[in-house]
Amino acid sequence: MDNVTIKDIAKALNLSTSTVSRALRGSYEINAETKRLVMEYAERLNYRPNPIALSLKENRSRAIGVIVPQIANYFFSQAINGIEAIAYNRGYHVIIFQTHESYEREVVNMQQAVSRRVDGLLISLSSETSDVTHLRELQDQGMPVVLFDRVSSELNATQVVADNFKGAFDATEHLIWSGRRRIAHLTIPPYLSITQERLAGYRAALEKHGIPYDENLVRYGTFGPDEVGPMVDELLALEPRPDAFFTASDRLATGCLAALHKRQLRIPEDVALIGFTNMTVAELLSPAMSTVVQPAQEIGQVAVERLIELIERKQKAAPPSVIKIPTTLIARDSTRAAVG
Fold first, then answer.
1. How far apart, in whole angstroms, are the C-alpha atoms of residue 110 and residue 92?
2. How many CA within 13 A on the CB side of residue 291?
3. Which positions fall inside the HTH lacI-type domain (predicted)?
């Protein structure tokens, strides 16, 4: 069926056009069953809102700005997939910016988003961002802002994150249960929220099992392309050397695996390895790599749903909160139990 309209849906379901319109926008005024009927019927007929018509009618751009550190990062590409799917079905289009881990570019991207008259902003902070004054000023001007993944406690805004503490706790405890005691942690810059949460989970698991925290076993990366090898060498030079590595990002996980192979260490016989990642190829690596899975797509979906609620309900929207999405631990060959 071509060019399906709200009137077509209303006639088929014996509803008013205003009810169908509000149901498609996810309005709190429409009950859940009516919303379900309308959304299912609209999906079946491949109905899509016309953003241009909506923007003229409502005096809004029907655009959402999304600022991420790097689109090529698997987590962010999947989060964007989730954002776009929800936004598209709600009649919004998405304008994507990337900071390449630069605070300066983040500020410029934000200004560009405002100049394009976006209705709201989703942002994951760059690794250089410690001052969020630019975002606070944007909020003061009335712009709805939602943070995801990399967030700041200094901003009074809704934040959608993975349960980083629990994910890191589970990863570390899994290594302990597999017989490891000297667990090294490779992580990203220390001032990032996700770094602090994952380090706290790592420390809590060690403490629970009576293993002293040793800061010599922790290394902080800076997103450099060739930094993992030297970090692995430093850790392997310790006495006694680590019997496991827990990494806090995709890049560190694959870099660590390559570095250990290059040094002819057997995984998991000589050293175990677990990542904190979304990589779909983790099970195809040699050995198949254990990992904590971040629900990137779900994080993106929840973040944009909360942003659209802020845009459309304004003062009636839910107050700022921290929404934690559960992680999942998948155990594979790289953390098989130590023998003997």
1. 18
2. 24
3. 4-58
